[in-house]
């Protein structure tokens, strides 16, 4: 089907119209909107389907012509300044549009069932469609001003969605934390945009990149000044893509509804930073200090995110730190010049991470009917176990994403991650070591999440029967599986031991009280669980609307990476922007293709070996037939050095690397102290001076008012005194020195 690229404006426009319509009707006609909420969900989903269709058709036409097109309209015309708005159609725009819209469709279909009992159902869809429209507008922006505006819209939508249940203090704090942290990065980005315009005189991306390169080659720009301008530009992606040290908002973003975690962590919120680096890559690639800083920020983020995910007990938070680590891979790849490999990894990551979060939402949604609506229980992996038997579709689809995240061939993320690891070793041995080590850690914590959630036995009653300490796995696994338990681990106070009957009674009481709370709450919505549902002993498989998106996402999670293997070169993803998803080898090229694939697999043996090692360690510790309960095995763990290492990793992970602690001490408390000092100075010095001046004027006026009694004799006396006093002062003798 032929479709002019002029109609590409429909890609962001369709979800924008859906969001505006849904939001307006929800605001002006709330009762009618609640009764027709399924109609609005269908309308929002249809708008995304339309955007996806236009994206695919435009991508096919663009791949055939290899053209780059811009459609611009002049705004703010002036003699020396003219800002043009419009949209840009190039391979990067269309590849990102396909990724955003396809993941968005899965989320909208999934949310229909997940949010069906929430009275904010229509409001959620309005926010979600606006979120998607903002990201689609961002990727099609031809200039820095539009990119900045749409970045702010993406940040605003993330604020609204993270704080969707704003009556919960934790959700309110989380959305404020995300908003403030991203404002820090966006302020730096604004400074960088202003500096680039001051140098090049243009906001148009292609134009300013060409001018900047020309001026730099001619020696017109001071290299120090050029890097000083480029680094603030990078501060925007640091905050938006959760890079160290502005990553602290990402784990707390889990307070929003689980369906929104998929676009935030997969193809929308965090992808904005990686996209921006790719868009201005021609500008920053000629600045080695900036590239060096970018590569090492990504490297530090990659390793720190992986270590922070190792001992998390919250299912969603573990996936959040996994996202942080994978984003570090992408930023590090961009910093070493492998921007196409970074984009390739971004796209493969989008589908696998969306699948992981939708799978976690399915688990949490089912666990809530067993343990109640407390996130500390429904999201705690040590309360789960053996769920694949009760939720086979969720478990199978989640399993398909686990080896892909671990980097096991031939699944999709293996191809993109392996390319980044190879490029890292070629550019810097230290970055290569970090990337390879992180590959092993990724396999370890990813398989740990799957094994704790879906394998073994269901542990809800066991956790409370034995006084489960969910802070670290080995103790929990030993106790839950009936293995020998050392004395040091068996010490529990009576206050920490709760019977299974007590926990079920508390769970029912808690859920009933929450049901009463929800029924009158317009934010959280209605709770329709019956008493029979409250007494479920095991979770149940989610309904068709929730499992269908997971089944669909499992397909690109497994096979999408094969599309990025270039059959004409011995590498992967080297010509992503033009050949990805478009090249279909002829039968005569199949043998050559297989030969190159074999060579790629042979070169990836070291990284795959590390991933398999991480998998084996996790299976040894958390697997169903693990011998970790054996006293002899545990005695090996009691080795002093090994035990210290394990405890250090546990404390580092549980305490989030102590970064939030130091931020609270040195930044939050420092800012509060400075604010109090400024408030004190304003109240007692500035206000005191102004109030004092006003009081003295009032007092003087009152004194004069009493003197002005209307008697001329008093006025004359005052006049005489005023004349005589200066004369007397002048005539006084001056004493000799």
Automatic annotation (TrEMBL):
NDH shuttles electrons from NAD(P)H:plastoquinone, via FMN and iron-sulfur (Fe-S) centers, to quinones in the photosynthetic chain and possibly in a chloroplast respiratory chain. The immediate electron acceptor for the enzyme in this species is believed to be plastoquinone. Couples the redox reaction to proton translocation, and thus conserves the redox energy in a proton gradient. The keyword Translocase applies. Keywords: Chloroplast, Membrane, NAD, NADP, Plastid, Plastoquinone, Quinone, Thylakoid, Translocase, Transmembrane, Transmembrane helix, Transport. Belongs to the complex I subunit 5 family. It comes from the Eukaryota. Residues 448-682 form the NADH:ubiquinone/plastoquinone oxidoreductase chloroplast chain 5 C-terminal domain. It is found in: Plastid, Chloroplast thylakoid membrane. NDH is composed of at least 16 different subunits, 5 of which are encoded in the nucleus. GO terms for biological process: ATP synthesis coupled electron transport; electron transport coupled proton transport. One of its GO terms (molecular function) is NADH dehydrogenase activity. Its EC number is 7.1.1.-. InterPro entries: NADH_UbQ_OxRdtase_chlpt_su5_C, NADHpl_OxRdtase_5_subgr, ND/Mrp_TM, NU5C-like, Proton_antipo_N. It is a multi-pass membrane protein. The chain crosses the membrane at residues 39-60, 81-104, 124-141, 148-167, 187-206, 264-287, 293-311, 544-565, 600-622, 715-734. Its main location: plastid. It holds the Pfam family Proton_antipo_N. This is NAD(P)H-quinone oxidoreductase subunit 5, chloroplastic. PANTHER family: NADH-UBIQUINONE OXIDOREDUCTASE CHAIN 5 (PTHR42829:SF2). Residues 78-125 form the NADH-Ubiquinone oxidoreductase (complex I) chain 5 N-terminal domain. GO terms for cellular component: chloroplast thylakoid membrane. Residues 141-442 form the NADH:quinone oxidoreductase/Mrp antiporter transmembrane domain.
């Amino acid at each position: 089907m032929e479709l002019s690229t002029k109609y590409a404006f429909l890609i962001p426009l369709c979800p924008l119209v859906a969001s505006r319509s849904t939001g307006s009707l929800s605001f002006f006609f709330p009762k009618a909107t609640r009764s027709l909420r399924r109609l609005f969900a269908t309308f929002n989903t249809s708008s995304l389907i339309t955007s996806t269709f236009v994206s695919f058709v435009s991508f096919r036409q663009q791949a055939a012509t290899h053209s780059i097109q811009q459609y611009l309209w002049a705004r703010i015309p002036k003699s020396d300044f003219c800002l043009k708005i419009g949209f840009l159609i190039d391979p990067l725009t269309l590849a990102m549009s396909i990724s955003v819209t396809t993941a968005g469709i899965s989320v909208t279909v999934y949310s229909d069932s997940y949010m069906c009992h929430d009275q904010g159902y229509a409001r959620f869809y309005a926010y979600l469609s606006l979120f998607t429209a903002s990201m689609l507008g961002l990727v099609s922006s031809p200039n820095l001003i539009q990119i900045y505006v749409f970045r702010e819209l993406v940040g605003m939508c993330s604020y609204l969605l993270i704080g969707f249940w704003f009556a919960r203090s934790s959700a309110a704090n989380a959305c404020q934390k995300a908003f403030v942290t991203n404002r820090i990065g966006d302020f730096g980005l604004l400074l960088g945009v202003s500096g680039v315009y001051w140098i090049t005189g243009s906001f148009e991306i292609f134009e300013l990149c060409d001018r900047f390169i020309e001026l730099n080659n001619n020696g017109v720009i001071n290299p120090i000044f050029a890097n000083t301008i480029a680094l603030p530009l990078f501060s925007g992606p640091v905050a938006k893509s959760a890079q160290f040290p502005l990553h602290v908002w990402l784990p707390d973003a889990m307070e929003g509804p689980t369906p929104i975690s998929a676009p935030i962590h997969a193809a929308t919120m965090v992808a904005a930073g990686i996209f921006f680096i790719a868009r201005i890559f021609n500008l920053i690639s000629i600045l080695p200090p900036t590239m060096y800083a970018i590569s090492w920020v990504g490297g530090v983020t990659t390793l720190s995110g992986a270590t922070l995910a190792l001992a998390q007990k919250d299912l969603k938070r573990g996936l959040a730190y996994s996202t942080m680590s994978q984003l570090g891979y992408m930023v590090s790849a961009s910093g070493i010049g492998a921007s196409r490999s970074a984009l390739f990894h971004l796209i493969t990551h989008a589908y696998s991470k969306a699948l992981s979060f939708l799978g976690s939402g399915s688990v949490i949604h089912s666990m809530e009917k067993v343990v109640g609506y407390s996130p500390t229980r429904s999201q705690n992996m040590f309360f789960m176990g053996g769920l694949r038997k009760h939720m086979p579709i969720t478990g199978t689809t989640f399993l398909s994403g686990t080896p892909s995240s671990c980097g096991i061939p031939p699944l999709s993320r293996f191809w993109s991650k392996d390319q980044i690891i190879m490029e890292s070793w070629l550019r810097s041995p230290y970055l290569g070591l970090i990337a390879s080590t992180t590959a092993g850690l990724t396999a370890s914590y990813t398989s740990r999440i799957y094994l704790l959630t879906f394998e073994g036995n269901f542990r809800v009653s066991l956790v409370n029967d034995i006084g489960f300490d969910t802070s670290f796995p080995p103790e929990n696994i030993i106790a839950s599986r009936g293995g020998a338990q050392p004395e040091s681990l068996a010490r529990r106070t009576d206050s920490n031991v709760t019977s299974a009957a007590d926990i079920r009674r508390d769970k029912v009481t808690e859920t009933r009280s929450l049901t009463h709370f929800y029924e009158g709450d317009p934010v959280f919505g209605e709770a329709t669980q019956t008493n029979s549902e409250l007494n479920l002993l095991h979770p149940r498989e989610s309904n068709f609307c929730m499992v269908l998106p997971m089944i669909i996402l499992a397909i690109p999670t497994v096979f999408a990476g094969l599309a990025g293997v270039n059959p004409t070169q011995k590498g992967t993803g080297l010509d992503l922007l033009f050949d990805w998803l478009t090249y279909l080898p002829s039968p005569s090229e199949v043998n050559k293709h297989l030969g190159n694939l074999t060579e790629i697999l042979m070169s990836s043996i070291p990284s795959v070996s590390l991933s398999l090692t991480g998998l084996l360690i996790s299976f040894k510790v958390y697997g169903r037939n693990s011998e970790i309960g054996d006293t002899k095995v545990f005695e090996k763990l009691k080795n002093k050095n090994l035990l210290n290492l394990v405890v250090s990793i546990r404390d580092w992970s549980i305490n989030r690397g102590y970064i939030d602690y130091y931020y609270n001490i040195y930044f939050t408390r420092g800012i509060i102290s400075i604010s109090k000092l400024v408030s004190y100075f304003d109240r007692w010095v500035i206000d005191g001076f102004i109030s004092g001046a006003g009081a003295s004027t009032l007092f003087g006026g009152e004194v004069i008012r009493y003197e002005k009694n209307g008697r001329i004799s008093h006025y004359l006396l005052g006049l005489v005194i005023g004349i005589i006093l200066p004369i007397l002062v002048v005539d006084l003798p001056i004493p000799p020195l």
